[in-house]
UniProtKB/TrEMBL annotation:
Biological pathway: Amino-acid degradation; L-histidine degradation into L-glutamate; N-formimidoyl-L-glutamate from L-histidine: step 3/3
Pfam families: Amidohydro_1 (PF01979)
All residue ranges annotated as the Amidohydrolase-related domain in the record: 68-409
Protein name: Imidazolonepropionase
Cofactor binding note: Binds 1 zinc or iron ion per subunit.
Length: 410
């Protein structure tokens, strides 16, 4: 079945050749076609171009006058599967406690882990699927989801099985990351080696056997997992074929970037605190730096130095970090707006970072992230807007008319 979208005011992020990512000064360039058509066959983009060359017919035709089309957002870093919320800690922070102080009192990740351990797999699925549906309506058409609120063998497997079930029941690409190394459970507080041993020798073999994850992550941070711990965990993951995508440099720079690169990480995520050596280390690697501006916003911590990263010729991706503690929002429109407003990215840079570079950071470059023949027909049809710059400019508004996944409006 063919679907033809006509009179598109501007077709955005058109890439004739399927380039995998954009870096440095190239991020300023966002290729578009004005007054365009887009032709789909079933779930795939098969043609596009100027309205002067519009095909004469199709099974279905949709008139897009005044509206624009861009690829759906590629959210390469989320923790969408969680139980309950942490609203009380939000209020505690308003009243003066820091994120670190809350964690040190047994709150934070351990609080979410306790809730998740007490929640049934079915209930966890219900809560998580609602969040997934919400972000899809906000324009997300490919997503990565992490475990890491289980912290026991059973609860980590429960989270990963929920991610698997989401993948089976929803049509967007979903990638799973094993994040057993998210925090040390209280009972291992004085036996960190014991918990790392549990991750490596009990969790990893089971996850690999059930084929529950493609990526491995660790929270490499002062007070969480050291560079040496991270090194061991990534090394063990590699034995099971898991590619690293790693939480680094959120609060301190301790060598997380370097250890991730050592293990050929697909991405290094957070990067709120970066020194010159961290930026230098990323040059010439295949590792995608990923910024999470909604986390900086919610926790009032520094924003990733996007300009310095791009000036070094590096690529940059944007993602939400949707999770109950540091970023209870999965809205990529807000991420793009905040990247422009707070990180001084141009709309072109931010849209590149949230689409094609986000796809790269999930190993999905062949499927999504641009309007390219052969890619999945996952795209956003905007409301009537004057220019695509309205997406970050009118921050807080959702300028989406409809979201198409596999060629169908959801
Ligand atoms: O990416 N920093 C580590 N993990 C999450 C937040 C965890 C939490 O507070 O629940 C993040 O920000
Ligand atoms: Fe995260």
């Amino acid at each position: 079945m063919t679907t033809l979208l006509i009179n598109i005011k501007e077709l955005i992020q058109v890439r004739e050749n399927n380039i995998k990512k954009v870096s440095g000064a190239d991020m300023k360039v966002l290729p578009t076609i004005k007054n365009a058509f887009l032709l789909l066959e079933d779930d795939t983009i098969i043609d596009y171009g100027s309205m002067e060359n519009v095909p004469s017919s199709a099974d279905t035709t949709i008139d897009c006058t005044g509206k624009m089309i861009l690829p759906t957002w590629c959210d390469s870093h989320t923790h969408i599967v969680y139980a309950g919320n942490r609203e009380q800690e939000f209020v505690d922070r308003i009243n003066g406690l820091t994120y670190e102080e809350i964690a040190n009192k047994g709150g934070g990740i351990l609080n979410s882990a306790k809730k998740l351990q007490e929640t049934s797999e079915d209930d966890l699925y219900e809560q998580s699927s609602k969040r997934l549906e919400e972000v899809m309506q906000l324009g997300t058409g490919a997503v990565e989801i992490k475990s890491g609120y289980g912290l026991t063998v059973e609860a980590e497997l429960k989270m990963l099985r929920v991610i698997k079930k989401l993948r089976e029941n929803y049509k967007l690409p979903i990638k799973a990351t094993f994040l057993g190394a998210h925090a040390f459970p209280t009972e291992y507080k004085n036996n960190k080696e014991g918990y790392i041993d549990l991750i490596i020798n009990a969790m990893l073999p089971k996850i690999a056997k059930e084929n529950l994850a493609e990526f491995i992550d660790a929270f490499c941070e002062t007070g969480y997992f050291s560079v040496e711990d991270t090194d061991k965990i990534l090394e063990a993951g590699k034995k099971y074929g898991l590619t690293p995508k790693v939480h680094v440099n959120q609060f301190t720079t301790i060598g997380g970037v370097q250890v991730s690169i050592k293990h050929d990480a697909l991405s290094v995520d957070h990067l709120e605190v970066m020194n010159a050596e961290d930026i230098e280390a990323l040059k010439g690697t295949k590792t995608m730096p990923v910024a999470l501006p909604s986390c900086s916003y919610f926790l009032s911590i520094p924003y990733t130095p996007a300009r310095e990263i791009m000036n070094a010729g590096l690529p940059l991706a944007l993602a939400t970090d949707f999770n109950p503690g540091s970023t209870p929002s999965g809205n990529m429109n807000f991420v793009v707006a905040t990247a422009c407003i707070k990180m001084k990215m141009t709309p072109e840079e931010a849209i590149n970072a949230a689409t094609i570079n986000g796809a790269y950071a999930m190993n999905l470059s062949e499927e999504v992230g641009s309007i390219t023949k052969g890619k999945k027909a996952n795209f956003i049809l905007t409301k009537e807007i004057l220019s695509y710059g309205a997406i970050p400019y009118n921050f807080g508004s959702v300028l989406i008319d409809s979201v198409f996944i596999n060629g169908k409006a959801i």
